[in-house]
Amino acid sequence: MAVPTVWLCRGSDCRSRKKHPGAGEVLDALEATCTERGVRLRTTSCLDLCKKGPVAAAGDEAKQRRWFRDVADAATAVALVDATAAEPGLASLPPALDERRLGKRDGSKPKGKDVKRTLVDP
After folding, report:
1. Which of 26, 32, 65, 77 has the fewest Cβ atoms within 10 Å of its own Cβ atom?
2. Which CATH superfamily is domain 5-102 in?
3. Domain boundaries, the chain
4. Sign of CA dihedral 111, 22, 95, 36
5. What are phi and psi of 5, to 5 degrees?
């Protein structure tokens, strides 16, 4: 059975409180909400999507993942966990998350000259 999971980029730009004042509260909100909802939280090194950060991905541990930009406040982080817990494939999203979605609507990784890495679980 696939485990619902949220991956949060913790590269220097995405975790910078100078660039993203809510970066600390995002991690705190994700840790608390993931624990409450039974969603696994993984942090990653830089995902090379710095211009769109803070960046997160969510879905299951298989291939169903959605990528999101501007996950810069606690409310967005909680909405992401709630959507992931309710439906790990994230086929339907609330409007606040849908407008932040990156990449193709099929869940593939966003493409671009600044995308170099993929998510790999240990």
Report:
1. 32
2. Glutaredoxin (3.40.30.10)
3. 5-102
4. positive
5. -140, 145
